[in-house]
Amino acid sequence: MLSGHEQMQRREGSSMRGHTAGLVGVLSLLVSLPVWAESPESVTTMGPKWMTVHQVKGVVGPSVQIDERGIVSATWVEEDKDTRTIFFAKSEKPNEALGTSVPVNRPTEDVYYRQESPALAVHGNEVFVTWSQTHPKITPDKPFSGELRLSKSTDGGRTFAPSILVNDDGQVIQHTFDSIQAAPDGTLHMAWIDGREGRKEPGTFVARSVDHGRTIAKNFKIDDNTCVCCRTAVATSADGVVYVAWRKIFDGNIRETVVSRSMDHGETFSTSVVVGNDRWVYPACPHRPASLGVDQRGRLYVVWYTEGADETPAIYLAYSDDQGKTFSAKKQLNRSKGTFPDHPQMAVDPAGRIAVIWEEQSPVRREVVVSYSLDRGRSFNEPIKLNEKNGQTPAVAVNQQGTVVMGWKEHAMPAHRLVIQTMQFPSTELALREAEDHEP
C-alpha cells in the first residue's frame, strides 16, 4: 500500500573513508577528555545514501534497525493536513533502498504528535512498533493525554495487525516517551513515562511481553521523579540482563541520567544508579534522551547529553563492567567549539564496536555527525559529517556483523526527506584484537 507522500529514492555514490583506533590525548582523574584515534588498519566503509522525499506537512523520525542479513528497517510519522500516520518500510536486499512504505496504525487511530519517532524492534520476521495514540477520552484540561500502543507484523512488515494497549491503568493521562527492545529469547521489554499516580513528577514504568506481543504483562513502576519528556531507553544483554535508562530529577532541580537493571528477565528492577554525576541544574525538561548498548562481554555503555554544573553543552559516554552498579569516568565525544551538540544516539555490536550519532547545531546550520570506537569505547575517531541539508533527529543501529545503519531527517523545502546510510566496521577478529590490546 502506498503512503500519502510522493516517494523518490536516490542512490548516491558510495565513498570509503579510513579512520582508526590508537590512543591520543590525556585522561583526567574525573572526566575523560575527547580521545581521537588513528591507526592504518582500522578502515570503515561508508555506504551509499538512500533518500525518500515526503511531500507532506511534517515528518517525524526515523527509527532504524538492521538484521543479520543486512536488511534495513525504518519507521516514521507523517502529518498531512490533520491526519498523522505511522509508516514502516524496509529494504528487500542488503545495500538497497527502502521499499514501498506501509501504514502501521489504522485510519481510526489518532497518532499523538511529538518530536520522537515511534520505537522499533525487529526479531526475525516479526516487527514491533510502540507509539502513543491521542487518548479517545481526551479533555481540554488534559490536552497531552495518550494511550501507549503496540503494533505488530508477522510477515516482515508487509502488513500490521490492529494495535493493542500497553498501559493498563485506564487513566486519561500521558503514556509516552517509550522505548522497546527484543531480547535474544524474543521477550519484548518496554519502558515509558507515566503519570498515573497523580504526582507532580511522573514515574518510569515498564512492561514486557513473553508471547511475541500477543499480550502485555502487568505494568509496574521502577522509579519516581522522572524528567517528564526525556525519552526512556532499553537494552538487553546476551545473558538476559535488562537495562533501562532515563533522566531523573533530584533535589534542587538537578537532572541526572540514571540506569536500573533487572537480573530476572524484567520481573524486578534495581534501584537506579547515577551515571555521570553531572550536577546539572535545570528547572524544566531538556527533552534529550540517553542511549544504551551492551557488548558480548557484558559491558554496558551509556551515551547522554548534559550541560553539567558549568552549563556547557556536551555529549558523554561512560560504561559499566559490573552490570550497572558503577560506571567509568565519563568521556566527552563532541569536539567542535562553535556548535551545540544535541540528541545523541548509540549502537553497540557484540565486539564492542560503537557508533554514536548526534546533531551539531549552529545559528544557521544543523549537521548530523557520527563518531565511532573500535576498541570498546577507549578511543573514538573525529566526528564525520553525514548530512547535506539541515539535518535532525538522527538514529542508529548495528547488527552482529558490524554493519551500521544511520538515519536522519533533512529539511529540503518545500518537502522533507529521510536519509538512510550504512557504514561497515572492519572484521570482528580485528576489532576484538584491538580491544584486547587496548585493555588497561
Tell me what you see in this structure.
There is one protein chain. This protein has 440 residues and is mainly β. The protein has a single domain, classed as 6 Propeller (Neuraminidase), CATH 2.120.10.10. A hairpin with a 5-residue loop joins β5 and β6. The longest helix is centred in the last third of the chain and has 11 residues. It is globular and about 55 Å long. The N terminus is likely disordered.
Task: State the end-to-end distance.
Answer: 54 Å
The whole-angstrom Rg is 20 Å
Which segments are poorly predicted (pLDDT under 50) over 5 or more consecutive residues? Answer: 1-41
User: What CATH first level would be assigned?
Assistant: Mainly Beta
Spatial shape = globular
Beta-strand proportion:
over 45%
For the record, the count of structural domains works out to 1
Q: What is the fold named in CATH at topology level?
A: Neuraminidase
Q: How many extended strands?
A: 31
CATH architecture: 6 Propeller
Q: What structural class results from the helix and strand content?
A: mainly beta
User: Helicity range of the residues?
Assistant: under 10%
Mean pLDDT: 88
Main beta sheet, described?
A: 6 strands, antiparallel
How many helical stretches? Answer: 1
